[in-house]
Amino acid sequence: MRPLAVEAYGVRLRPFRLDDTADVVAGCADPLTSRYISGLPTPYTEADARSWIGVGAPGVWAGGGAAYAVADPATDRLLGAVGLSNPVPYRGQAEIGYWVTPDARGRGVAGAATRALTEHAFATGTARLELLTHAENAVSQRVAVGAGFHFEGVRLAANPSRGGGRHDLLAWVRLADDPPGPAPRQLPDLPQGVLADGVVTLRPLGPDDVDVMHRLHTRPEVVANQAPPVPPDRAAIERRCRLSASQWLTGELARLLILDAATGEPAGSCGLSVSDPQAGEGTVGYALLPQWRGRGYATRAVRLLAGWAFGPAGLTRLAAGTVPENVASHRVLEKVGFRREGLLRGRLPGLAGTRIDDLVFGLTPDELR
What we know:
Elements lengths: L5 E3 L2 E4 L6 H8 L2 H6 L9 H17 L3 E6 L6 E11 L4 E8 L8 H15 L4 E7 L3 H9 L3 E11 L5 E10 L19 E2 L3 E5 L5 H8 L2 H4 L10 H16 L3 E8 L5 E11 L4 E8 L8 H14 L6 E6 L4 H10 L2 E11 L5 E9 L6
Parallel strand pairs: 5-6, 13-14
Antiparallel strand pairs: 1-2, 2-3, 3-4, 4-5, 6-8, 7-8, 9-10, 10-11, 11-12, 12-13, 14-16, 15-16
Helix pairs in contact: 1-3, 5-8, 9-10
Protein name: N-acetyltransferase
GO molecular function, one term: protein-N-terminal-alanine acetyltransferase activity
InterPro entries: Acyl_CoA_acyltransferase, GNAT_dom, Ribosomal_N-acetyltransferase
């Protein structure tokens, strides 16, 4: 692929120039860029930018990849970068990556550049593109989905972490013959960002919800209904909250916070996991803080979640597993329309090598109350 300019989707892809130096520094020295692209020098200096423009980028082209500056077509000012690396010519495969300067974020620049270079790569003979993201970088994962890349799986410990150690990467893939447009999602976004019935509101869990989630999921009565009944430590809750957006985008799990609609106070949490994508089956779970119990909030939350699961998410069956002694949870499920389906003896791990029975409930769309 020759370093010729490409203009599409409101951006211009062109070779880097020395007058891009200050903007390259602004983009690569930014903490967010540095966090997710661990191979960048830190601190990132003007000398690093000049080395990239004069040596690094031309070297990428010489090695069969691509290294484009992403520019504003009206001003030719650099907005970011997009490129192809790790080419495998006999497979027709390459890896696409990008970054955007801080003042250009939120304008769709990364998505536009990714779509433009993806189409150009396919038009010039590439058959398969990979896009790898940090597991916590949900913004980049949205770019991938919007550009038509499908989640393929996790590359375990695939990248060195800044400061030592290694971390996983999520692999997103697009093929040359994939249909145009964004990739379909197993778990779509909530309509208007929330589910609400006037009494309770459900919104996606986020990184700022660590305190309430830790308070809720370390309560003895909540832990007793988990398998195994072991309270999570704060680090596990923090990771759960940081990965929530990513797990939603990959179609694995939708975690939500239950709020009192009148005050906005957190009342609990609930979730929907896609337990069997081929069968269209999901599994629900929920828990409330003590002061909100007995008000019907869990029933309302499960009903809202089930309606979304059977509607926009397109599932055809929901299941819920409970310990046999959790009568309050059984009543919640039955009020929503779930039916008892059976007792699976010793299905779940308990403490000290013991096993826990699992009382299973099921719901189909026509049974939702």
